[in-house]
Request: fold
Amino acid sequence: MMHVNKVFGEERRQLILSWLKESDQPLSGKLLATKTNVSRQVIVQDVSLLKAAGEPIVATSRGYVYFQESANTKSCATVIAVCHQEVDTANELYTLVDYGVTVKNVMVEHPIYGDLTGSLMLKNRRDVDVFIRELKTKEASLLSELTGGVHLHTIEAETEQQLREAKAALRTAGYLLE
Reply:
C-alpha cells in the first residue's frame, strides 16, 4: 500500500476501497488516515459512505475488512446461542476457530435498543489473541456483559461437519445454550 498526498472525496474513497479489496488483513482507520493524509474521522465518514453505497465493508476490532463472496467463501453458516463468564471468552473463541469455524459476529438483545451486533470476523487463534488483547488494552466491555453472559454468534465453516463438531465441543465445555 503506497503513501499518497492528500486525496479528496470520491478519489480517496476509491483508493480506500481498492486497498481494502487487495488486503488479506484488516486495515485500521489510523493506517488509512495516514496513507491518505486525512484524519481518522474522515476515514470513518468515507467508510460509512462506501457502506451506504453497498460495499460489503465490515468494521472489526482490528480494522476494516472488505468481505468478498467468492467460490472459496465458506458455505455453511448457523447462529448459535452461548453463555459463559468473561474469563471463558478466549476458550470459547479458540474452541470455535480450532474446528475451522469463522466467528463472524456477536449479538445480544438489549432491553432498550433491541438487537445489538458487533462484527468479529475471527478465523484463527491469532485473530482471537488480537481481539482479547484489544479488549484488555482498551479496557472495553464484552457485549455479553449486558445480558449476563448470554449471547449469539453467527458462525460459518466449509462443511456442516465442522459446525456440528464445534457445537459439540461448546456443549461439552458447558457454553452452548439449547
Notes: The chain has six helices and six strands.
